[in-house]
Amino acid sequence: MRIFMRTALAATALVLAVASARAQTSPSASPSAAEASIHAYGDRDKTCVAWSDQCRSCVRGADDAVSCSNIGIACQPAAIACTARKPDPAKPPAPAK
């Protein structure tokens, strides 16, 4: 009877560990989804050359390579917003005031 109880307890612990690991690595989990979106934001909006989630800032270089800063301790990311765009070649620059 003791062997059966130990085996059942070990099996239950294993099932719970696997379920927990799957929940942490699912595509809908917040940290991994947020991480992917800050780096992929430039792919969705090619006119944006700099963007931020108020914790990290990303910049598109001249060679189209994206470089992002690290997140600070205890920073809570906000919605990602474009902070600089490529100038529109069809639109003349605004006159200086």
Can you give a write-up of this model?
The protein is an alpha+beta fold. It has a domain at 31-86. 39% of the residues lie in helices and 18% in strands. The chain has 2 helices and 4 strands; from the N terminus they run ααββββ. A 4-stranded antiparallel sheet has the order 3-2-1-4, with helices on one face. A hairpin with a 5-residue loop joins strand 2 (57-60) and strand 3. The protein starts with a helix and ends in a 12-residue tail after the last strand. The model is unreliable at 23-31 (pLDDT under 50).
What would you say about this model in short?
Helix content is 39%, strand content 18%. With 97 residues, the chain is α+β, with helices and mostly antiparallel strands.
What key attributes describe this structure?
97 residues; alpha+beta; 4-stranded antiparallel beta sheet; 2 helices; 39% helix; 18% strand
Note the beta-strand portion. Answer: 15-25%
Shape: rod-shaped
How many individual β-strands? Answer: 4
Give the helix/strand class.
alpha+beta
Helix content: 25-40%
The largest β sheet comes out as:
4 strands, antiparallel
Please give the count of helices. Answer: 2
Distance between the termini: 88 Å
Instruction: Give the low-pLDDT segments.
Output: 23-31
Q: How would you write the strand order of the largest sheet?
A: 3-2-1-4
Can you write the helix and strand succession as a string? HHEEEE
Averaged pLDDT: 75
How much is the radius of gyration in Å? 23 Å
